[in-house]
Write a structure and sequence with these properties.
Blueprint lengths: L2 H4 L23 H22 L10 E4 L6 H4 L7 E7 L6 H6 L3 E5 L12 E7 L1 H7 L4 H11 E12 H8 L2 H4 L1 E8 L11 E8 L5 H7 L1
Parallel strand pairs: 1-2, 1-4, 2-3, 4-5
Antiparallel strand pairs: 5-7, 6-7
Length: 218
């Protein structure tokens, strides 16, 4: 069905950052695509600067972008030794086509439900405005926290990029989930006025230890 357009795809790895021939089908221009790619390049660079004190070269392998949009988060990681599952909302535009055109992999999901994660868990979850989205649907933020804890490996990381009110909500559950705050910073992207008070909050999942194992570590 898309032979003519598909044949215009650039070879790998150029296609990661080259505008897809199908951009116009989703109302995007090449300029909008390039701006999105650059925005997420800067954001990912900022994320890694915050994570650097906690990670080594092989700490992060399986990653999930819980709201991938155009796949620019994953594209910005092309020089990292990682694998990214890109997830897009089931009630939004089917930008999986654009993600596939970039040579990436992805799936569609509603975060009001559990995610079919077999056979893997993840070292890092990236949640850009996911909590704000499910709140609009009337779904439970507490349930999403539990689902993220299930998906995340021990010692794994979560990057929550959302409104300050969401960050405050998540902080209330850190102790109960055995999560630890790593860093908090405002999103310093140049067009932040479009995003309001978005904040980046990085969390690490700690090991659950019994009283006996705690004594052993001491």
């Amino acid at each position: 069905d898309h032979k003519a357009k598909g044949s215009e795809l650039a070879p790998w790895p150029t296609r990661l950052t080259a505008p897809s021939p199908r951009l116009a089908d989703f109302g995007y221009s090449n300029e909008m695509f390039e701006k999105d790619t650059e925005t997420w390049r800067r954001r990912v660079e900022s994320y890694w600067n915050l994570l650097n004190p906690k990670i080594q070269s092989d700490t992060l392998r399986n990653l999930m972008d819980m709201k991938a949009n155009l796949g620019s988060f994953a594209a910005a990681l092309k020089d990292k030794d990682v694998w990214v599952m890109n997830v897009i909302p089931e009630d939004g535009p089917n930008t999986l086509k654009l993600i596939y055109d970039r040579g990436l992999i992805g799936s569609t999901h509603n975060w009001c439900e559990a995610y079919s994660s077999y056979p893997r868990t993840y070292d890092l979850l990236h949640a850009w405005t996911v909590f704000s989205d499910i709140k609009k649907k009337g779904c439970s933020g507490e349930d999403l926290l539990l689902e993220m804890d299930r998906l995340l490996r021990p010692s794994g990381f979560i990057i929550i990029h959302d409104k300050q009110a969401v960050i405050d909500f998540v902080k209330k559950y850190l102790t109960a989930l055995h999560w630890e705050a790593v860093a908090t910073t405002a999103d310093a992207r140049s067009d932040s006025e479009q995003d309001g008070d978005e904040t980046v909050f990085i969390i690490q999942k700690k090991l659950w230890l019994t009283s006996e194992s705690l004594r052993d570590t001491e």
